[in-house]
Specification:
The chain has 17 helices and 2 strands. The chain is mostly helical. A two-stranded antiparallel ribbon has the order 1-2. Helix 5 runs antiparallel to helix 9, helix 8 runs antiparallel to helix 9 and helix 13 packs antiparallel against helix 14. It starts with 17 loop residues before the first helix and ends with a helix. The relative contact order is 0.12.
Length: 340
């Protein structure tokens, strides 16, 4: 079989397509998708109802897709264990979303009512806890201490990232370093678990560092892009209003950089944005969004996201050269294409 170059063979006019990437592991993906809910076995009907609600409202299943691509990259054969691990990864991701919605007091996610809005906060938190507990219950079945350590350490990092975000909420003095520490936990860590877990399953520990680098840089790029789109995206496509992160006082890179740039160039604008971050009061949301846009912050963040994307692609270069690696490469292109 002819090896596949890391460089995309598609013409520049053809953006990567998620469905095409997913089709590379279509059989594995379909089985995994069924297992996400099928692996739950609670005797409590409310747990099953809420779990089904949040799993059905899930997104593109990007994290388990990455696990499946990595597993096939090392061994091009169906792996029940890899499908099972991918489902567990999505279960953990779903749990973090449920908890996020409670913290953010969100009423909708991807245009659908959240669990906390449909039931209440207490129910949502407890079902999120159940999903995490069930994920680890299923992980025990692999009888791999290395895998358990990867996921237990990673889940601690995810929780710490969320607490760090909460700690810096409404803090206009938050720095870019603070931001990177937050997203390393709350976003990038699960991508790292998705890649490294597949390597452990396939006995490919020599590739753990490259996969960690890919997962971290891909996750960083993914989150920075999300945060840029909060000021420049399509609110209908995103399922939320532009500027929501600002009103929630979240320390995102666009706001952090805008405050840094405005401090010297526009004292009045700086003060307006600082007060908005500190109080969460944004009656002049459109003006504040324009302040962030005109400050040059989004240009800086876009460059940072593209640099993280470049590093993610670079990390793939030492991995087995085949269509599954190409799928991972195309996922990074798909992420950065959202900025165009």
């Amino acid at each position: 079989m002819t090896s596949t170059s890391l460089a995309s063979s598609n013409p520049a006019s053809q953006a990567p397509n998620y469905t095409d990437i997913q089709s590379i592991v279509a059989h594995d993906f379909d089985i995994m998708d069924e297992q996400v809910f099928g692996s739950l076995n609670s005797k409590v009907q409310l747990v099953m109802s809420v779990s089904k609600h949040v799993i059905d409202a899930g997104g593109k299943r990007m994290r388990p897709l990455i696990t499946l691509l990595c597993a096939r990259m090392f061994n091009d054969a169906p792996s029940e264990q890899a499908m099972h691990l991918a489902a567990i990864t999505e279960m953990l991701h779903t749990a973090t979303l449920v908890h996020d919605d409670v913290i953010d007091e969100s009423g909708q996610r991807r245009g659908k009512p959240t669990a906390n809005a449909t039931w209440d906060n207490a129910t949502a938190v407890l079902v999120g806890d159940y999903l995490i507990a069930r994920a680890f219950n299923l992980l025990v079945g692999f009888q791999s201490l290395e895998l358990l350590k990867l996921f237990s350490d990673g889940t601690c990092d995810i929780a710490e990232g969320e607490v760090l975000q909460l700690q810096h909420q409404h803090n206009p003095a938050a720095t870019e370093t603070d931001y990177l520490n937050i997203i390393d936990g709350k976003t990038s860590r699960l991508f790292m678990m998705a890649t490294q877990g597949a390597a452990i399953l396939q006995g490919q520990e020599q590739h753990l560092q490259a996969l960690a680098d890919f997962g971290q840089h891909f996750g960083n790029a993914f989150q920075i892009i999300d945060d840029v789109l909060d000021y420049s995206g399509d609110s209908e496509l995103m399922g939320k209003n532009l500027g929501d992160d600002l009103s929630e006082g979240k320390p995102t890179l666009p706001t952090i950089k805008a405050l840094e740039l405005l401090k010297d160039s526009d004292k009045q604008g700086y003060e307006q944005l600082r007060i908005a971050v500190q109080t969460g009061k944004t009656p002049n949301a459109e003006q504040l969004i324009e302040l962030v846009r005109s400050s040059g912050s989004l240009d800086y963040c876009t460059k940072r996201a593209l640099e993280e994307t470049r590093l993610a692609k670079q990390a793939l270069s030492s991995l087995p050269d085949n269509r599954y690696r190409q799928g991972l490469y195309q996922l990074t292109e798909l992420a950065s294409a959202r900025l165009v």
